[in-house]
Amino acid sequence: MFRISRLGWARALALAALLSLVHSAAATATTFLMEDYFPLLEGSSWSYTGTAGDETVDRLDQKRNVNGVQTTVLKTTGGDNDGDREFVTNSPGLRIHRTISDGRNITFSPAYLKAPAITQEGQIYESSGSATAFLNGFGPFNILYESTSTVLGVDPVSVPFGTFNDALRIDTKLKVVGLIGGQLFRIRTSESEWFVENIGLVQEIGVSNGVAFERRLTGVGGPVIPEPSTVLLLGAGLLALARSRRRAS
User: Where are the domains of the chain?
Assistant: First the structure.
């Protein structure tokens, strides 16, 4: 007769307990709908302040077709950040199809992934492919890219626009590399971004080719809907301002 030793039973029970914990953790992991955390509503705008006090504005103002996909153009103006990024947040998730800035026009194929449509806390998402680059009007040049995004869950975040206890944090690393005219072309970006439901990006901190950057939300416009707590905070601020003016008069 086949017998299992006490040590064998102990190992089997330990393995069963471990599998149960893993299954329980997977079942209770928090999920997020990216179209709620980064709503691409045409006409929306977000104002930011940077580390050095420079002001930038992101605005959704048009649609463009990139690689056969209709994307929403996020146009950034102000400071040294003028440029376009073309996003989608439909069933493929939050993806960037093309970036245009500093004389560089780079189209990704396939679009690089920030997070899928339904993303999960603790998950790591990778994407890679080719990219077509135009530099200061010259090109096209064929290069490569790879990216890794990690969904770290929710953090409390305080920015000039308000304080949020449940900002979704996503860390992304992007590497673009290739030979252009016999010279090595390379972009390395590492950034952390915090998104708030029904508002969008409220804070980003990162480094691109050795240059640090930071932006913190100062205001929203258009059809973006702030959280109730934020509306109350802004209302309280306006009420306090009105009272101070009355006293001054």
Answer: 31-234
